[in-house]
């Protein structure tokens, strides 16, 4: 069996690693001109389900490395004013496992061949039941299964399920990161909490690695090369619906909205990495109508993009990867045919993926300034 994975995000790479471990050929195609062409985000929280799905797709020999490069997090789930006084609660505190998205992506890229600059322009289902993918540059490729793991603006989804489209919530957020110094460690009560300003909200989260990633890879898995990233604070400012930056840079936009805030919060933004602060929209994709069964399917944000306020987007994509991996192994072992195996995956994925989107949207108003999410 041969699988073509369109998109080199976390879900697509996790699937490719899982298939590779099962002896199934998997080729990855990425539309960006290079793996590091754009910011991929920062810290993400792994649920027990997401963490186990990730482990299921990784070689056993990398499990000690994975355990070393994650961090332990506690989220107070408080509501604070801009001077860091508690004024309410978002919900009960919670603990979890956190990992840096860039570090995880480099781990998942290890040993895989990724064809970059491969923007999908369309595909055809051939007479023999296989799928042929076409690209803006380079030769087409044929596989037993084509998997669209190409994000909210999925080119695969546009052909497979054109009636399933992304919805813009109107909410925007600016995201960035700042090295975790002793001064910023004192912001601990604000990690996982909402700092509520008059027209904006600020969310903070610490990324503390159990072992620095580069060091951990050198000691535990020399064949893996991980970036030299140190502990940091991830911050995200949510703007009012349809809010714009109103400033030349994302960093300046945040500073212009935090005049009079606690000096530590101002310093956190001032000392951020200016090259990796950016404005992003919150768009969602909800799975609705099933498409006809065949050699093409979707995974992750391509079919169930969630609001980040749900904390479940990456976890659900990892769950997809592990589930599809297990279903395809059944097809290889001839316990059922390929179309049946993909159908089993899609039935389950539609159910939990749709619930993940609904959960994330239900959580959005609590984080948006003045609860203005529509």
Structural description of this entry:
The chain is α/β, with parallel strands linked by helices and 374 residues long. It contains twelve helices and 18 strands. The strands form four sheets. Strands 6-5-14-15-16-13-17 form a seven-stranded mixed sheet. Strands 8-2-1-12-18 form a five-stranded parallel sheet. It has a three-stranded antiparallel sheet with strand order 3-7-4. A hairpin with a 5-residue loop joins strand 10 and strand 11 (141-143). Helix 3 runs antiparallel to helix 7 (213-220) and helix 11 (313-332) runs antiparallel to helix 12. The termini are far apart. The model has no long low-confidence stretch (mean pLDDT 93).
Topology of helices and strands:
Blueprint: E1 2-6, H1 10-21, E2 25-29, E3 43-46, H2 48-57, H3 63-69, E4 71-75, E5 78-80, E6 86-89, E7 94-100, H4 101-109, E8 114-115, E9 120-125, E10 131-135, E11 141-143, E12 145-148, H5 155-160, E13 167-179, H6 182-185, E14 194-196, E15 201-207, H7 213-220, E16 232-238, H8 250-256, H9 263-270, E17 278-284, E18 296-298, H10 301-304, H11 313-332, H12 338-367
Parallel strand pairs: 1-2, 1-12, 2-8, 5-14, 12-18
Antiparallel strand pairs: 3-7, 4-7, 5-6, 9-10, 10-11, 13-16, 13-17, 14-15, 15-16
Helix pairs in contact: 1-4, 1-11, 2-11, 3-7, 11-12
């Amino acid at each position: 069996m041969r699988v073509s994975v369109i998109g080199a995000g976390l879900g697509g790479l996790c699937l490719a690693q899982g298939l590779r471990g099962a002896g199934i050929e998997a080729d990855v195609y990425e539309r960006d001109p290079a793996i590091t062409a754009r910011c991929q985000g920062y810290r993400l929280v792994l649920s027990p389900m997401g963490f186990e799905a990730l482990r299921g797709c990784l070689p056993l020999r990398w499990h000690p490395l994975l355990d070393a490069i994650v961090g332990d997090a506690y989220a107070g789930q408080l509501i604070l004013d801009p001077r860091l006084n508690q004024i309410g609660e978002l919900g009960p505190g919670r603990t979890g496992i956190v990992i840096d998205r860039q570090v995880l992506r480099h781990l998942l890229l290890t040993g895989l061949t990724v064809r970059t600059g491969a923007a999908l322009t369309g595909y055809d289902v051939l007479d023999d039941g296989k799928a042929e993918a076409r690209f803006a540059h380079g030769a087409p490729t044929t596989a037993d299964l084509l998997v669209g793991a190409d994000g909210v603006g999925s080119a695969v989804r546009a052909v497979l399920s054109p009636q399933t489209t992304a919805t813009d919530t109107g909410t925007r957020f600016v995201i960035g990161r700042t090295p975790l110094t002793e001064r910023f460690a004192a912001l601990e009560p604000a990690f996982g909490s909402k700092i509520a300003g008059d027209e904006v909200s600020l969310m903070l989260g610490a990324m503390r690695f159990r072992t620095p990633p580069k060091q951990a890879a050198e000691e535990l898995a020399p064949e893996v090369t991980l970036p030299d990233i140190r502990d940091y604070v991830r911050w995200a400012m949510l703007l009012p619906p349809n809010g714009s930056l109103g400033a030349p840079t994302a960093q300046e936009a945040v500073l212009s909205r935090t005049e009079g805030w606690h000096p530590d919060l101002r310093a956190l933004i001032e000392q951020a990495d200016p090259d990796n602060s950016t404005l992003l929209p919150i768009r969602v994709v909800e799975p609705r109508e099933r498409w006809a069964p065949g050699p093409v399917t979707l995974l992750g944000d391509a079919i169930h993009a969630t609001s980040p306020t749900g904390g479940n987007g990456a976890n659900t994509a990892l769950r997809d990867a592990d589930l599809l991996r297990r279903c395809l192994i059944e097809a290889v072992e001839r316990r059922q045919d390929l179309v049946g195996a993909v159908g089993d995956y899609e039935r389950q994925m539609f159910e939990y993926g749709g619930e993940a989107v609904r959960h994330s949207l239900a959580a959005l108003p609590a984080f948006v300034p003045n609860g203005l999410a529509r």
